[in-house]
Design a protein that fits this description.
Blueprint (H helix, E strand, L loop, with lengths): L4 E6 L4 E8 L3 E9 L1 H5 L6 H23 L8 E7 L3 H18 L3 E5 H7 L11 E6 L4 E6 L6 E5 L5 H11 L6 H9 L22 H16 L6 H26 L4 E5 L6 H13 L3 E3 L3 H4 L3 H13 L18
Parallel strand pairs: 1-4, 4-5, 6-9, 9-10
Antiparallel strand pairs: 1-2, 2-3, 6-7, 7-8
This protein binds 5'-O-[(R)-(carboxyoxy)(hydroxy)phosphoryl]adenosine (KG4) and zinc ion (ZN).
């Protein structure tokens, strides 16, 4: 059988990325151009600024990816594109680039949901084993997904309010840590002590999460300390916050694995880079005979390699887009 080379484009937030992936599992080459430093000065991603930078960079990133991979468009089987969810102005740039390439070079266009990409980042590590539970933890999502086979997604629960990455970023702001807050809270959490009495959020039998109460508790502690003229012990607050997040994510994930009689767990999304979460899940999965797959850090945050991996399976399933394909700021995982 001929090899399938997917050229993938990801531009849903503040990374302009292009990758070439062989057969859904082999990363030939990836270029990620991050705008993080630009947005850091604003304390968060500014959508207008992000889309403008995507426009400036997309052609260069595309050319660089093909050149460094030593390939031409003739070698490419299909073009995979993140059509959503994400920032609409950012998504539009990638979608337009993908449609243009598909038209000019007469290649199939394969629309990929951003979260399917995060999930399939794990396929770049080892082939996914089914059935599995995917714990999706990113800046915009916190979901538990049941997959009985490739490209079949059943959402069994998720956050009722803030996504976990969003909670990290907001908690970090209260702690006066610069953007992006998640990795900084993670780093500090390793140095502090769990001394602040934060609640374990939505500790019930459902597969749902809620992080807005935990975030408010962090804000309240910081205000109370300020009113008393005390400094916040930032490292201790980071440790207390992270412990609660990790505990509830692990508890609900293990509950889902047990109830669905599933022995495979994968973790996906930017917060999968969290050291506390990775370490705790490793321990608990080992104790419970669960096979755990967590992507290396470079595949956790947004990149086109994961879109190329998912794009391969979407392509094999016959998913196609045409020149009417439009970007979607929100969409159900499918
Ligand atoms: O998946 P991602 O790159 O973008 C979205 O699709 O949302 O995730 C970004 C999120 C941000 O909220 C960032 O703070 C968080 O992932 N994040 C982390 C860590 N690394 C990234 N949160 C906690 N600990 C980390 N080490
Ligand atoms: Zn993402």
């Amino acid at each position: 059988m001929d090899d399938t080379y997917i050229l993938a484009i990801e531009s849903s937030c503040d990374e302009t990325s292009v990758a070439i992936i062989k057969n859904g599992c082999e990363e030939i080459h990836t270029v990620v151009l991050s705008q993080m430093d630009i947005h850091a000065t604003f304390g968060g991603v500014v959508p207008e600024v992000a889309s403008r930078h995507h426009i400036e960079n997309i052609t260069m990133v595309l050319e660089q990816a093909l050149m460094e991979a030593n390939l031409t468009m003739d070698d490419i089987t299909a073009i995979a594109i993140t059509y959503g969810p994400g920032l609409i102005g950012s998504l539009l740039v990638g979608v337009q680039a993908a449609k243009t390439l598909a038209y000019i070079y007469d290649k199939p266009l394969v629309p990929v949901h951003h979260i399917a990409g995060h999930i399939y980042a794990n396929n770049l590590v080892e082939p996914l084993e089914f059935p599995l539970i995917a714990l999706v933890v990113s800046g915009g999502h916190t979901d538990l997904i049941y997959m009985k086979e490739d490209y079949s997604f059943e959402r069994i629960g998720g956050t009722l309010d803030d996504a976990v990455g969003e909670a990290y970023d907001k908690a970090a702001r209260v702690m006066n840590l610069p953007y992006p807050g998640g990795p900084r809270v993670d780093k500090l959490a390793a140095t502090g002590e769990d001394t602040y009495p934060l609640p374990l959020p939505l500790d019930d039998d459902s597969y749902n999460f809620s992080f807005s109460g935990l975030k408010s508790a962090v804000i309240n502690i910081s205000h109370n300390e300020a009113q008393r003229g005390n400094e916040i012990r930032v490292a201790d607050l980071a440790t207390s916050f992270q412990n609660r997040v990790v505990e509830i994510l692990t508890k609900k994930t293990m509950h889902a694995l047990k109830s669905y009689h599933v022995k495979n767990l994968i973790v996906a999304g930017g917060v999968a880079a969290n050291k506390g979460l990775r370490t705790h899940l490793e321990e608990v999965c080992k104790e419970n005979g669960i096979h755990l797959c967590v992507p290396p850090i470079k595949y956790c945050t947004d990149n086109a390699a994961m879109i190329g991996a998912a794009g391969y399976f979407a392509y094999k399933k016959g998913r196609r887009g045409d020149l009417t394909l439009s970007a979607k700021a929100t969409d159900k995982l499918h």
